[in-house]
Amino acid sequence: MFIQFLKENRYVPFLLTVFRLYLGWEWLTAGWGKISGGKFDASGFMVGAVKNMSGDHPSVQPWWGHFLNEFAIPYVDLFNVMVPWGEFLVGAALILGIFTSFSALMGLTMNFAYMLSGTTSTNPQMVLLGMFILVAGTNAGKIGVDRWVIPMLQKWFFKKAGKEQFPQSA
What we know:
The protein is mainly α.
C-alpha cells in the first residue's frame, strides 16, 4: 500500500523532489570537492577499512575486506577516478531529475560501499531517502527532466521491440 502510494500519488513528487535535491547536492558537492581538490586518493581509506576487519567485533566484514584487499586496492587508480566522478554525476542527475531511479540506485550502491567499509556519517540517512526515491520509480522524477525523457525512451524502446517481435512478411 505504501509502495503504491509512492509510485502513484500525484503529490508525492513534490516531497521526493526535496529528497532528490538534498541527495543530489550532497553527492555533487562531495564529488566536486574530490575532483577540484587535486589528487584524490582512496587507498588510505581502503587500507584503513581492511585493517578494521579483524578483532572480536570488526567494523568491516571479512568478505568486504577481502574484496577491498584483493580487487579494489590493486586497482585503486580506477577507483580514484570512479569515486569522485560517480559522486558528481549521481548528484547532477538527481538534481536534474534525469535517470532518477538509476541515479538513486548508484547512490545507494556508493552509500553501502562506504558503510560496508566501516563509516557511518550521513550514509544511513542518505540510504533511507534514496530508498524512497528508488521505490517511487518514475514518480520521483516527474518534477525533473525524466518527465520528458522517460516517455520518449519508452516510446522508442517499445517501438523498436514491436518491430523486432513482429517482423513484416513479404
